[in-house]
Structures are given as C-alpha cells and as structure tokens.
Write a structure and sequence with these properties.
It is built from 12 helices and 22 strands. The chain is an alpha/beta fold and 478 residues long. It has 3 domains: 4-155 and 280-350, FAD/NAD(P)-binding domain; 168-277, FAD/NAD(P)-binding domain; 361-465, 2-Layer Sandwich (Enolase-like, domain 1), CATH 3.30.390.30. The longest helix has 26 residues, at 88-113. It is an enzyme of class 1 (oxidoreductase). InterPro entries: Class-I_Pyr_Nuc-Dis_Oxidored, FAD/NAD-bd_sf, FAD/NAD-binding_dom, FAD/NAD-linked_Rdtase_dimer_sf, Lipoamide_DH, Pyr_nuc-diS_OxRdtase, Pyr_nucl-diS_OxRdtase_dimer, Pyr_OxRdtase_I_AS. Its EC number is 1.8.1.4.
Amino acid sequence: MTQKFDVVVIGAGPGGYVAAIKAAQLGLKTACIEKYQDNEGKIALGGTCLNVGCIPSKALLDSSWKYHEAKVGFSIHGIEAKGVSIDVPAMVARKSNIVKNLTGGVSTLFKANGVTLLEGHGKLLAGKQVEVTALDGTTQVVQAENVIIASGSKPIDIPPAPVNYDTIVDSTGALEFQSVPKTLGVIGAGVIGLELGSVWARLGADVTVIEAQDKFLPAADEQIAKEALKTFTKQGLKIRLGARLTASEVKKKQVTVSFTDAEGEQQMTFDKLIVAVGRRPVTTDLLATDSGVDLDERGFIYVDDQCATSVPGVYAVGDVVRGAMLAHKASEEGVMVAERIAGHKAQMNYDLIPSVIYTHPEIAWVGKTEQQLKGEGVAVNVGTFPFAASGRAMAANDTGGMVKVIADAATDRVLGVHVIGPSAAELVQQGAIGMEFGTSAEDLGMMVFSHPTLSEALHEAALAVNGHAIHVVNRKKR
C-alpha cells in the first residue's frame, strides 16, 4: 500500500530538514528523503553544510586560528608559549566529532517533531508521486499532497584539474588532510577557496590562490575587497588574479599546474591542489521526464519568488534554485514554503540576506555595495569607522579592518552595511535587523551602544554617514 503524506521533502540539508521540521510543527504529515552516507556508511542528515561545508570548515578555521594565535599572537599579551605544535589528525577528528553531534541532533529533531525519514534517493514522478530508491536498490513510491525539492549542490569539476581525491581535491577533500602540505595551490579566490586556503596557511603551508577573474571578491564592496586583498597578502597568501588554469599534471605525489596570466604562460608545482571554483545544483536523476518541473538555462529548478515550481504543489528551495548558495537562505526558504503550504501568506526578503567569509579578519555584508548603488544612479552618503580606533578591538589585539555604512543621500535610509574585521558577521547581522525595519543612519546613531564593544564601530560608522562621528575625525563634505 502506497504511503501518503501531506509533505514530502527531497533532501535533508539546511533547506530540506528545516522545511520538514517546520511542516511537521504546522500539523502536516511529513516525510524527508535523504541518501547521504557518512564514513561509517550510515545515513547522515544536514546536507553539505553540516557534513562537508559550513560546520566542518568553521571547526578547522577556529582550530587553525587558535594555533596561529598561540604561535605568533600570545607574546604581545605577555604570554610565553614555547614549542607550540599542531596535531592535524586530532584537529580533523575534533571536526568530525562536531559534525557527528550536529547530524545526530537533526535525527533527534526529526523524531521529536514526528518527521518520517525515508532513507534513499528521491525522484519526483508525475502527479506528485516520489520514488524512493533505498541503498540496497529496492524502490517504493510515496504519494504527496505537496513536494519540496531541496537536493542542494555539489562542487564544480573542471577539466584542467580533475579531482583524484589524493593530490587534487575538492572542498570536501580539503577538510580531510592528515598533515600540512608544504605547498598548496587553491583554484578559485571565492569564499570556499579563501577559507580553506586560510586554514592551511595558518598551519604552515605555502599557499598560492589562482583566480581567473581580474577583480578580487567582485561581489563585495570594492573598498572592503581592497582591504581584504591587502590583509591576506600581508598574511602570506599569494593571490594571483587574472590567472586562467589550462592544465595540471600529477607526478611523484605532486601536481604541476599550468595557467596563463598577464605575464604569459606560467607553471607552479604543489604538494596538494584544492579546486574551489564554485558549486552547481544537484539534479541528476531527480526529475522524471513527465514530472512537469522545469530547469532554467543554468540547470537550476525554475521557481517564482515564493519557491513554487511550474507544477502546483511542488516547490524547490536552497542551492538547487536561483539566488545565493547560502545555508541560511535555504533554511528561510524552507520555512516560507512550509508556511505557505499550511495556508499562511509567508514572504521572504531577498534583499537582506547577509553574506559572510569566515577568514580572519571576517568579511561580511548585507544590502547593496557602493558600486552597485552608484551604477543605479542612487546618491549616497558613506560612513566608515576603523577598528584601529576601537578600544575593544585594541584590547583584543584585533584592530584590522573597518565598518562601512551606506545610506541614501535623500532619505538617510541605510542601504548597505559592510564589515571586514573582528566579529564582522555579528555586526552585519545588527545592521540587517535595523534595515529590515527601514532604519536610517540617524536611527542607528541615536541608539545607545554598550562600551567598550566592537558594536560601537557600527554606531560610529552610522554617525559618520552624516559627519557626526565622535571617535574618529569626520571626512569633510566636498
């Protein structure tokens, strides 16, 4: 007998598992399908983010930063730490244990909320039926009133550097190194490449990042991106812009890459090479030909602003649809869709999705960049405040970077908050909260911020928008 559900979710990543839990909380009979297996061959929930993405990379970023601090940053505090060393297998094991705890936590939440887990590969058939192929190859078909596709994304492969899971790895493989490579190449200076490159550079690897684009971090505000490039270069990351990879050759446990840049043909040899050129949606064997769901020209599932596909009752969320490939965007889309299925008129504000790069210093932003606004012909006032003038940052010996607030020159409404520096993600989130409620720079400037905090940098940058900063010299208006 065919199992019937109000909602069937394909995929248990940040979009899928959140959608499933929310749907169940709203009283809908819900199932979630997942096929990802951990190293022990067990189904692991949480998708890329929990298993091989956001969470494990942050664990390694934090461990590597603590090692770097102990090795070179303690002496200024009067702390002497001699003979500091790193046990890479122990660091990686800690990362794996955190992942295990969190994926197990999602399983517990499924049980607590009454979500039925169906182990296997999900495929949408016609008439909102979903075929589930179990790990042993057996199949069953379940019937759904509503289907939410949350199949996620996977790393993009590039022909000049095919991943061999040894010398050449993708972002997943870069989380499993058992020793620090002497030389490390990273293809791609995006979020993933910079974060993973930072981890191994702090631990002692000689890291070169090869990026095809001429511009560094083109999605970020130009002023912030310039500061970031300067900072990473000072930290020892060698970033080669305008460098297009043409070939790679593996010999004697090393890889030689060929690329062209402004100086012509170049070659470099590395112990390890990480390919981090982006991700693509997972749609392999996901949709039957008569399912009725359409893909756009880039291979993403076509959806409207509420994540509805071309088939009534079928939705798609997260990395498999348009927009930023961010876990928090996927989760909020999952919540929106579950609420809409339950009859609520939920909407999502796509203009205020924060972006974060978890290097050190962190880089984060929300809203529009100064160059975007100028391109749109919007007159703006800009206020900045350097962490070098922050008492709290000085106390922490973490004074690199700045906060930048951009406001509409006519209305004073805040249109963008951009930060490079300590706790950038947390400060940008404060900006996002204010922007959600239509804050002006003056509003932020009139609020009381506790002292001494890093948050005061946001306060001062907001004051600086209109030339009212207290703890930094205000720029004279032209």
